[in-house]
């Protein structure tokens, strides 16, 4: 009888322990972590080469190579700066290579400010045509149709010349310069610094 009661006591103790395990609440998590990763919309571009002297490629047959004539159109076309680019523009018709080193797609604008030095002339800032004391300018990009897609390169405030260039890609592009319609009075060199600006698409 004593053995039986001892066995019964052990069983009861086990049942009580089991019940206590069931009804005792498990402690809940009191904190959780959230990892936040923020990649900056970083904008940066590079361009090469950084210079162009109109009429330095093949010459136009009117003035000596390296010298620009009045009322003349020049293209930064490696095949010859007197040759208008095609429709569509081919890579080989573009002097410059612009690389989007940004983390995001970008839009590009090209401004062609007034010349300084020598017989400095001013950008017409309107339709890309030249005039007395004024030059005209356009920018163009590979794969666009030159005849319809070229964009007037104003002194400031040019329209978007190329939209949504993907991150870490490059594109070929070029410039058109139409010299002032009247003759210059000196042979001193004049300079303009073209500005290419990238903004988020």
Features:
201 residues; alpha+beta; 7-stranded mixed sheet; 3-stranded antiparallel sheet; 2 helices; disordered N terminus
Q: What does this entry look like structurally?
A:
- This protein has helices spanning 2-23, 146-149, and strands at residues 45-48, 73-75, 96-100, 106-111, 122-123, 134-141, 151-152, 160-165, 170-178, 195-200.
- The protein has 201 residues and is of the alpha+beta class.
- The chain has one domain (45-200).
- The strands form two sheets. Strands 1, 2, 3, 5, 6, 7 and 9 form a seven-stranded mixed beta sheet that branches. Strands 8-4-10 form a three-stranded antiparallel beta sheet, with no helix packed on it.
- The longest helix is centred in the first third of the chain and has 22 residues, at 2-23.
- The N and C termini lie far apart (91 Å).
- Mean pLDDT is 88; it is low at 1-20.
Secondary structure: elements and pairs:
Layout: H1 2-23, E1 45-48, E2 73-75, E3 96-100, E4 106-111, E5 122-123, E6 134-141, H2 146-149, E7 151-152, E8 160-165, E9 170-178, E10 195-200
Parallel strand pairs: 5-6
Antiparallel strand pairs: 1-3, 2-9, 3-9, 4-8, 4-10, 6-7, 6-9
């Amino acid at each position: 009888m004593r053995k039986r009661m001892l066995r019964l006591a052990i069983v009861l103790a086990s049942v009580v322990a089991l019940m206590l395990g069931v009804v005792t609440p498990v402690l809940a998590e009191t904190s959780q972590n959230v990892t936040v990763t923020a990649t900056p919309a970083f904008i940066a571009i590079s361009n090469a080469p950084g210079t162009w002297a109109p009429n330095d490629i093949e010459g136009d047959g009117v003035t000596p190579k390296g010298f620009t004539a009045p009322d003349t159109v020049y293209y930064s076309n490696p095949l010859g700066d007197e040759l208008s680019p095609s429709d569509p523009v081919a890579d080989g018709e573009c002097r410059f290579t612009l690389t989007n080193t940004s983390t995001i797609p970008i839009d590009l604008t090209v401004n062609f400010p007034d010349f300084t030095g020598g017989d400095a002339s001013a950008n017409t800032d309107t339709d890309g045509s030249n005039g007395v004391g004024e030059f005209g300018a356009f920018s163009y990009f590979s794969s666009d149709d030159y005849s319809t897609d070229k964009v007037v390169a104003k002194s400031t405030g040019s329209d978007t010349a190329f939209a949504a260039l993907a991150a870490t890609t490059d594109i070929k592009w070029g410039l058109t310069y139409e010299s002032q319609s009247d003759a210059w009075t000196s042979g001193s060199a004049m300079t303009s610094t073209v500005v290419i600006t990238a903004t988020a698409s």
